[in-house]
Structure formats: C-alpha cells, structure tokens
C-alpha cells in the first residue's frame, strides 16, 4: 500500500467515525449542529473514500476488487454512496447514519487487516461480470445497513430506550415501514448479485451453481429476507418482530461475505489474489 | 357416493395448506436450515473420501446426527429433494391463487399481484432449470498436454464423468487437441494459462479456438471451460537392465501451483520399484544444498526424482535440469522436454437456459412488485402497490 492510499484510507475511516459520533451526539443531545457536522463528515468521508478507490485503481491498473482489501474498500464506497444518497435525498433520514456507519466501518476494518500489497489481478476476476456482481452486492449491503439501522432504532425505542434517538425520523410504525422498504431495495439488488454471479460462474467454472459455501450463504441471506417479506406481507409481522428480522438479516449478510470464508474452505476466497 | 361439493370440502384444508403462508415459511425455513448444515459440513464430492472419513472420526457426535439425515451429501439428499418438491408445489399453488386474484384486482393491487405472479413464475423456472440441469447434464473433466489429441466421445479419456439420471445419450464426438498453452501475466506475474485448442467435429475441418479462464469455448451441445493447468515433463526412465520403462509426458497433477510453483505426482509404471515421486521445480536453484524453486515461472526447470520408503520418507533422490538425466536407485531418469497440461471441463447442460430465463422473469417480477415501494421510501410517499394490496 502506497502512502497516498494509506492517508486516504485513514482519512476515510476517521471521517466515517466522526460522522457516526456526531450523528449519535446530535440525537442524544438534540443539537442540530452535531447532525450538520455528521452530514459534513460523512460527505467528506465519501469524497476521501472515492479518492482511495481511485488511487488504488490507478496504482494497481485494475478495478480495485481483486483482494480482500480492495473489495472492502470499494464495497464500503458503494454502500456509502447508497447511505449518503438516501440521507441527501431525504434529510429527515439522516439519523439512520448512526446504525448504518458501524457496519461500514467494520467492513473497512476487515479490509485493512487483510493483505494490502498490490498484486496481479487473478485471471478469474478478468470478467465483465465482476463489476456487476460486486457493485450489486454492495448496493444491497448499503440498503441492508439502512434497513438494519431503521429496525434497530425502532427496536431500541419500542424496548423503552431512554435516549431520544428518533430526532426527526418518521413517527411510529413508519420507521419500521422504512426498514421494510430498504429491505425491498436490498432484496432486488441481492437478486441481481446472485444472478450475475451465476452467469459469471458458468463462464468461469462451467456451471452456474456449485453449492460452494459462499454461494449457499448468499442464498441463505436471500432466503432470510424472503422470509422477512413473506412474514411481513402475509403473516402480519409488523413492528418489533419485523424490525428484529431486518436487524437479524444483516448478520446473515455479514456471515455470507465476511464469515463463511474463515469457517470453511471455499472457492470464494476474497483474500487470495 | 359423495357429491362433488362434499369432496371439495374434504380437500379444502389441504388446498389451503398448499398455498398458505405458513407452508411457505415452514418450507423456506427448513430449506434454509438444510443449506446452513450443508455449507458447514464437508460434502462428499467436494472433499476427498479420506478427508471426509478423517472429519467423521474427529467429530463422532455431529456425524451420528448428520449421517442418517444425509447431510454429508446435503444438496442431493432425500430431505433436500423433498423440500425442493414442497417448495415447487407451494409456489405452483401460490401462483395459481395469485392468477385468480389478479383477474379481480384493479389499479395498484393488480400491479402488485401481477408482479408477484411474474416473480413466482421466474422462481418456478429457476427450479425447473435446476431439475433439467441435475437430470440431463453431462459433466466431465479431461486433461491434455500440449500436442495431445483427445476424443471427447470416449468415456475412458475423462478424469471423472457424471451424467444426470436421464442423460443417457452419447458424448459429443469432437476430437480435441491442445495445440499450445501460454501463460497469461499481469504485471509480469503469471496468473493463468491460455490454451489454443484444435477442435474437430466428426467429418468437419479442424478449427482453432482459444480457451482461457473466463473464456469458455462453446460448441454445439457442449461448453468447454478452463479448469486447471500445470506442467508435464517429458520423462524417460531406463531400468538397470536397459529396458525403457517410461517415455512420455507425465502430467504432474497431485500438487500444482502455489506462490513458488510446486508440482509433483507419483510415477507408476511396470518395473519401477516401490513409490517414485516426481517433483518439478520451475525455477530451480540450489539453496543451502537443497533444491528449491524461487518462482512459479519456468525459467530454469528441473525435476527431482525421489524413491519413497514405506513410511513415506525419501530413501534416495536425484535432480536433473532440462535436457539432462540423473541416476537414482540404479534407474536412469532423463528430463527431455517440458510442456503444459490443461484441464478442461466438458459440460452439456441445457438447463442453464431455463435458469437464465428464470433470472430474467424473476427480476422483472421483483421490479414490478417492489420497486415502487422502495423508491417511495426515500421520497416519503406511499405507493399504491403497497404490501397491503398483496
């Protein structure tokens, strides 16, 4: 990793941490100035993240998705485009950053603990489907972290949290409804991710589905959200139960991308060139 | 004799159960749990038999539970098939009901129901495609060294060959030769090998096709994908009595690749004593008296011949660089040439087109059903196709 990359990475991470802290303080103390600081920090953080991705792209000469560090860096960028896009389009949703930032910061943390040296791009990654697959994976991640955030805030309030965390968010069940709609968007993106991965796999390995553990866990997280949609739509699961499943869903997403490869052997080893 | 309304009343609970949300949730939840188990346990076919046996002996309690449920072959087990069948029946029932409801619905509700209908038709197409793949596909691997020609219709040429339960047709009758293989590099480092294949259909002229990672060769009825590659040294072995025991390119497949490039295999031939292991060092150097490879590039290839004892330890060994020979245990080993082998996956699968159609239909259904809802989340409006209408 070159110094310029390291600087941009740590500025990105630092600004995202500041954005999280400022948003949280703005909610706890009901001070609009903190919320403004949070928005400024996350916007600047996204700019630095863009710089870090661009620097890596230029220095490596390939789309920066070739190893664990690059995937987490670029993936965080895509997810934050979703998060920042949503809070800029709908300022009332800014408090969602408080729940959305930690998973993204965690992803960056996982990335920086992976080998960061620039290496050759694996021939397996030399495919046009790679960009589609990765971008849609992290678009879904961005939506799911927002769904997680809305669900977690709804749960914390419904369980009697004393902190007035809502701070302008939609009232009552509308917050949980917002979580549902973010799940819906993430669900569509995840479907595209799975479909594009299958088509790519057919060219790469000769079959569109091999029951590899990471493939299976992508399907599992998809099924968990499918269950969520069925339970909410047809079984009347609203409020706490629905929010709890939206929160739980992100755990499955994390296991799919960051967990399984550490537990069992898989051809989707993101830390290998 | 019972009247038809009474029969309908009798079967009404069963029909309701077929399309009920409870059935859907129960089946999807069970399917999800089975997937979790299948992904966490070693699966027969993806790990070697000995590795699976070792795992079983190390985990007797888990094995006692998993074995009777078929969880070591989770994705072809009977519970898995039953769940897939239940899922298909449930989806057919739901789709039928939605079709009936959609005819009566109007406005946003009709759009939501229509989207849901299209989505479930897409999912059924996915399942149907999977069944076609499992039942009718032919899937095998062949290995060919540069210069070698293989007849794809001869089963004995395959390393492994699997046929679906109703795939009893003949293998495609192509003659396949590997004309050449060259490394593909990124930043001066080899990342893969690309091969030029000479493909001849029965009675037709031979054509050259390039096969590489992510660049399959599509022929009529069969797709060839690049599965693996390695080195094949030309080995000539002469016994102490002067008899030529081996004179062939030996594809080193047991171990191949890695950062420094390690390639090895056991050489078996009548007249060779015990176990003879052949290792290839692509970029040979002597380091503290030991033969090592300093890179995976074939800059200074050498073979190491090792006679192994019964306990697997090396009894006697010798090293020969390209174009030289070495005597080990009284046998003469000559290293005359170095070529590359390419492993090609040969697959005939008509189910994939049905699966791809399922993807397109399903995604279209998802968009019709849900896109307005997610967009209005950001814009702060409620969509007329909200879930209440479904």
Mean pLDDT of chain B: 86
Helix content, binned percent of chain B: 25-40%
Order of helices and strands of chain A: HHHHHHHH
Give the strand content of chain A: under 5%
Q: Span between N and C termini of chain A?
A: 15 Å
Q: Biggest β-sheet of chain B, characterized?
A: 7 strands, antiparallel
Average pLDDT figure of chain A: 90
Could you tell me the radius of gyration of chain A in angstroms?
A: 19 Å
- Count of helices of chain A? 8
Using only C-alpha atoms, the radius of gyration of chain B works out to 29 Å
Q: How does this structure look, described?
A:
The complex is a heterodimer of chains A (273) and B (390). With 273 residues, chain A is mainly alpha-helical. Chain A has one domain (3-263). Chain A is 75% helix and 0% strand. Chain A has eight helices and no strands. In chain A, helix 2 (32-60) runs antiparallel to helix 3, helix 3 packs across helix 5 (128-158) and helix 6 (173-205) packs parallel to helix 8. The relative contact order of chain A is 0.11. Residues 381-390 of chain B have low confidence and may be disordered. The longest helix of chain B has 30 residues, at 107-136. Chain B starts with a helix and ends in an 11-residue tail after the last helix. Chain B folds into three domains: 1-90, no CATH class; 138-230 and 343-348, no CATH class; 231-340, no CATH class. Chain B has 390 residues and is of the alpha+beta class. Chain B is elongated. Chains A and B meet through helix 6 and helix 7 of A and helix 2, strand 4, strand 5, strand 8 and helix 7 of B.
């Amino acid at each position: 990793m070159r110094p310029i990359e390291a600087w941009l990475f740590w500025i990105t991470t630092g600004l995202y941490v500041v954005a999280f802290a400022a948003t949280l303080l703005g909610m706890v103390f009901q001070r609009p100035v903190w919320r403004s600081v949070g928005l400024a920090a996350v916007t600047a953080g996204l700019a630095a993240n863009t710089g870090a991705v661009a620097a890596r792209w230029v220095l490596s000469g390939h789309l920066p998705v070739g190893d664990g560090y690059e995937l987490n860096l670029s993936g965080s960028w895509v997810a934050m485009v979703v998060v920042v896009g949503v809070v800029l389009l709908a300022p009332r949703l800014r408090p969602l950053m408080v729940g959305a930032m930690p998973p993204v910061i965690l992803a960056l943390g996982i990335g920086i603990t992976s080998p960061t040296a620039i290496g050759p791009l694996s021939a397996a990654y030399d495919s046009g489907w790679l960009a589609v697959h990765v971008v849609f994976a992290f678009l879904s991640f961005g939506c799911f972290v927002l769904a997680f955030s809305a669900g977690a805030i709804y749960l914390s309030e419904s369980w009697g949290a004393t902190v007035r965390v809502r701070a302008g968010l939609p009232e009552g069940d509308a917050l949980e409804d917002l979580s549902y709609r973010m799940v819906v968007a993430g669900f569509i993106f995840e479907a595209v991710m799975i479909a594009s991965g299958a088509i790519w796999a057919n060219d790469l390995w000769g079959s569109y589905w091999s029951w590899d553990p990471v493939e299976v866990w992508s399907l599992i997280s998809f099924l968990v959200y499918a269950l969520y949609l069925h339970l909410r739509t047809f079984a009347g699961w609203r409020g706490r139960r629905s929010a709890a499943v939206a929160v739980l869903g992100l755990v499955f997403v994390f296991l799919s991308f960051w967990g399984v490869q550490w537990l069992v052997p898989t051809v989707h080893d993101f830390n290998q060139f | 004799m019972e009247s038809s309304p009474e029969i309908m009343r009798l079967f009404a609970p069963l029909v309701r159960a077929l399309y009920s949300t409870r059935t859907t949730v129960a089946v999807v939840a069970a399917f999800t749990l089975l997937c979790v188990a299948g992904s966490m346990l070693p699966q027969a076919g993806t790990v070697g038999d000995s590795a699976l046996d070792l795992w079983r002996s190390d985990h007797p309690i888990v094995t006692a539970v998993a074995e009777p449920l078929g969880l070591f072959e989770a994705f072809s087990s009977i519970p898995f098939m039953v769940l897939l069948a239940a899922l298909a029946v449930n989806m057919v029932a739901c789709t039928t009901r939605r079709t009936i409801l959609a005819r009566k619905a109007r406005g946003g509700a009709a759009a939501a129901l229509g989207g849901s209908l299209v989505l479930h038709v897409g999912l059924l197409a996915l399942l149907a495609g999977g069944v076609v793949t499992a039942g009718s596909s032919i899937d095998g691997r062949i290995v060919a060294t540069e210069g070698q020609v293989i007849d794809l219709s001869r089963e004995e040429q395959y390393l492994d060959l699997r046929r679906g339960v109703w795939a009893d047709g003949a293998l495609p009758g192509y003659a396949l030769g590997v004309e050449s293989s060259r490394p593909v590099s990124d930043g001066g480092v080899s990342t893969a090998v690309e091969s030029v294949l000479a493909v001849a259909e029965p009675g037709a002229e031979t054509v050259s096709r390039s096969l590489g990672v992510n660049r399959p060769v599509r022929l009529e009825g069969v797709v060839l994908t690049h599965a693996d590659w390695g080195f094949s040294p030309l080995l000539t072995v002469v016994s102490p009595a002067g008899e030529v025991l081996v004179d062939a390119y030996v594809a080193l497949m047991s171990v191949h690749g890695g950062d420094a490039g390690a390639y090895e295999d056991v050489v078996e031939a009548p007249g060779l004593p015990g176990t003879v292991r052949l290792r290839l060092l692509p970029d040979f150097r002597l380091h503290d008296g030991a033969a090592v490879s300093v890179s995976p590039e074939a800059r200074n290839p050498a073979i190491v011949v090792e006679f192994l004892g019964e306990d697997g330890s090396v009894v006697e060994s010798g090293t020969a660089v390209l174009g030289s020979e070495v005597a080990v245990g009284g046998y003469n080993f000559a290293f005359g040439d170095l070529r590359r082998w390419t492993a090609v996956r040969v697959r005939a699968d008509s189910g994939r087109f049905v699966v791809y159609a399922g993807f397109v239909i399903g995604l279209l259904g998802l968009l019709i059903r849900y896109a307005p809802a997610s967009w209005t989340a950001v814009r702060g409006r409620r969509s007329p196709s909200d879930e209440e209408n479904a």
